[in-house]
Design goal:
- The complex is a heterodimer.
- Chain A contains twelve helices and twelve strands.
- By secondary structure, chain A is of the alpha/beta class.
- Chain A has one domain: TIM Barrel, CATH 3.20.20.
- The longest helix of chain A has 11 residues.
- Chain A starts with a strand and ends in a 7-residue tail after the last helix.
- The model of chain A has no long low-confidence stretch (mean pLDDT 87).
- Chain B is of the alpha/beta class.
- Chain B has one domain: Class I glutamine amidotransferase (GATase) domain (Rossmann fold).
- Chain B has six helices and 14 strands.
- In chain B, β5 and β6 form a beta hairpin.
- The longest helix of chain B is centred in the C-terminal third of the chain and has 16 residues.
- The chains are: A alpha/beta, B alpha/beta.
- At the A-B interface, loops of A face α1, β8, β10 and α6 of B.
């Protein structure tokens, strides 16, 4: 089975943003431009997350998704601020294939089982934001790791599977956006605990990190943002296009980000294939 | 002139992605659950994501079982996708046993998560389709061992090996990933989500069977 490379696009308002530990969001560009570019360059899926939706109690991805779905023919996952069955139905109607749930799932577990019964398990991706505790255990958080849930990550992952989630995306908040590599222990624990596909997210800074991830864990897919975005963001920059929301100082500087080996999807897949990781080329 | 292609709307899954996919190469389709529209179509697409039992319930509630079955028997081109493939069969193991449309002899089975197989279920992701040895492979023109996007927990087992067009190997378990029998082509994968090679399959169907 091919390991999937998913381009993850964090969205704030109309813009693609990227943070560190899910915080300190900087504007990188227009999501549609990135989405098109990743589709053309062989991404296996795209994942759109409205990263401030839970915080602002809104859900504004519909327009972006319905535009993107007209020209991009790979699976699209949408997450952020989906609170009820109608929100999910709206997201799927705008062209999403799957939805990812976190905050609302923690608030009401029956929401996951109801959603998977109505829309099918394979359309429901459960999202877990994990933070390592001083004693080495992992606890789940919501709202970009602002809200503590007290749920133990591995147990929560198993429960989500029982509730009918079709996939789990596990984010290491500690490593997210840092480029220091994956928390392999976390991902190993989660992917060993469930029999549904697991997507790793948070930490890739070098190609070796991806190789280690696939060689050392049983994970099925990876959601990558920084390594791909920082490569793309240096291609065409028109700061005047971003006047609504967010911090564009980083983009204006025109620099890359030294912690990341920026790369493209074809280069990433070629490297992984040469290291024995089966990818769709 | 465009042939009248109808995407059957029975409230299961993302119909717009199938419509968008056909539009990407200039073919207009109509999404409809109207019996008269379906009966008058030149070709019908049965898409679908979700649960088998729920899908059959919807088809019955919308009174579309007979209309669609008659269309299949008329010999005009039919395209089934994912759940739309499975529904063509006699019955499915999903949630006890559910009766299907019975248009293709065979059954729908769940991936076994037994001790000897360590398959993750659902089978989600890109997997290669392999041709079996058969003469008419128009549907696969331009396709050679390409990976397509799958999302499913059940697979079809046609009674007749002649119905099988492609197979797919899921970590050692080989299942039927598409069928072609008379006027029916149906696939377990989602061409509308399989990038350019997926669109190529739709184009083949339209060019060779509908046009």
């Amino acid at each position: 089975m091919n390991k999937r490379i998913i381009a993850r696009l964090d969205i704030k308002g109309d813009n693609l943003v990227k943070g560190i530990h899910l915080e300190g969001l900087r504007v990188l560009g227009k999501p549609e431009d990135y989405a098109r570019y990743y589709y053309e360059s062989g991404a296996d899926e795209l994942m759109f997350m409205d990263v401030v939706a839970s915080l602002y109690n809104r859900n504004s991805l519909q327009d972006i998704i319905s535009r993107v779905a007209r020209e991009i023919f790979i699976p699209l996952t949408v997450g952020g601020g989906l609170r009820n069955i109608d929100d999910i139905r709206m997201a799927l109607r705008s062209g999403a294939d799957k939805v990812s749930l976190n905050t609302a799932a923690v608030a009401n577990k029956h929401f996951v089982s109801e959603a998977s019964r109505i829309f099918g398990s394979s359309n429901i991706v459960a999202c877990i934001e994990a933070i390592k505790q001083p004693d080495g255990s992992y606890l789940a958080y919501t709202d970009n790791a602002r809200e503590h849930t007290g749920l133990e990550v591995v147990k929560w992952a198993r429960e989500l599977q029982e509730l009918g989630a079709g996939e789990i995306i596990i984010t290491s908040v500690d490593n997210e956006g840092t480029g220091q590599g994956y928390d392999l222990e976390l991902i190993r624990q989660v992917s060993a605990a469930v029999s549904i596909p697991v997507i790793a997210h948070g930490g890739a800074g070098k190609l070796e990190h991806l190789k280690d991830l696939f060689n050392d864990t049983n994970v099925d897919a990876v959601a990558v943002a920084s390594m791909l975005h920082y490569n793309r963001s240096q291609m065409d920059i028109n700061p005047s296009a971003f006047n609504k929301e967010g911090n564009i100082a980083f983009l204006m500087s025109g620099t890359g980000f030294s912690k990341f080996d920026t790369t493209s999807i074809p280069a990433m897949k070629e490297y992984l294939s040469s290291e024995g990781v089966h990818c769709r080329i | 002139m465009n042939k009248k292609v109808v995407i059957l709307d029975y409230e299961m899954g993302n119909l717009f992605s199938v419509k968008n996919a056909f539009l990407s190469f200039g073919v207009e389709t109509t999404i409809s659950s109207d019996k008269a529209v379906i009966a008058a179509a030149d070709a019908v697409i049965l898409p679908g994501v979700g649960a088998f039992g729920q899908a059959m319930d919807n088809l019955r509630r919308l009174d579309l079982v007979e209309t669609f079955s008659n269309f299949c028997k008329s010999g005009k081109p039919v395209l089934g996708i994912c759940l739309g493939l499975q529904l063509l069969f006699n019955e499915s193991e999903e949630f006890g046993n559910s009766k299907g449309l019975g248009l293709v002899p065979g059954t729908v089975k769940k991936f076994d998560q037994g001790s000897d197989m360590d398959l993750k279920v659902p089978h989600i992701g890109w997997n290669e389709i392999s041709r079996v040895n058969r003469t008419n492979t128009d549907m696969l023109q331009g396709i050679d061992k390409d990976a397509m996007y799958f999302v499913h927990s059940y697979y079809v087992m046609p009674e007749s090996a002649d119905a099988v067009l492609t197979t797919t190997n899921y970590d050692g378990f080989i299942f039927c990933s598409s069928i072609q029998i008379n006027n029916i082509f149906a696939c377990q994968f989602h061409p509308e989500k399989s990038g350019k090679k997926g669109l190529n399959i739709f184009m083949n169907w339209y060019d060779k069977f509908v046009k």
